[in-house]
Amino acid sequence: MSDDEQTERIAKRLARAGVASRREAERIILEGRVRVNGRVLTSAALNVGPKDRVELDGKPLQEAEPTKLWRYYKPIGLVTTARDEQGRPTVFEKLPPEMGRVISVGRLDLNSEGLLLLTNDGALKRRLELPSTGWLRKYRVRVHGVPTDEMLEPLRRGIQVDGERFQPMKITLDRQQGANAWLTIGIREGRNREIRRALAEVDLAVNRLIRVSYGPFQLGQLEPRGVELVPARVLADQLGAEGKPGGEKGGEKGGASKPRGGARTGGRQGRNRARR
To answer: Which residues span the domain enclosing 109?
Structure first.
């Protein structure tokens, strides 16, 4: 293969090196932080090849490492940003240093917990976040109230909240537990605080939210703050020969055992908190 055939967009090169997602890489380029062969870039509309010298903030861009994906149990109280304007602790401050620089696939808000996928490859992050992948994200949700099928039906059909249309959710009522009830909810888009906002529309207040799967990748037996590398063969299998996610069909195959049901998801600590 010739050098010309190996060229790629500069933003993709940055993403593959784990600098940021492709969109974030384009912003970095516009800030004048990237040089190619000594020239400061002012546009992301450039292809680079293997022999081009790329620098970020005056330092040579590191060679792209093999793509890696980790499963991480995000606990309550951490924000999913690299830096927080309010000085709150972040997910990335608590990770083992040997992981190197990683970025998250999607987010979980401060008061949500459970499975968060982390990767060293910005291009993979973008690919896994695209709505077109169709991957189902499943959550165990505890709500205050007595939900009925009639109350939940608008969410199953698709609901509009504050002018924003949410796609139909997959919802099952698992059990009533005193003044609270446990639901299992599946969504495909993952908009900002989507589940909390949708349930509030039908007068149900969320008091615990645990993501238990993202496509085929499962929370499994991870404890809070636990992190495990997805085996390379599993990652290759789930992304397919062309690097595209395999959709819901692969949802039970992923990089870990299937999560245990009910409030037990996430291991011993999850069980203890759920009983409170």
So the answer is: 65-276
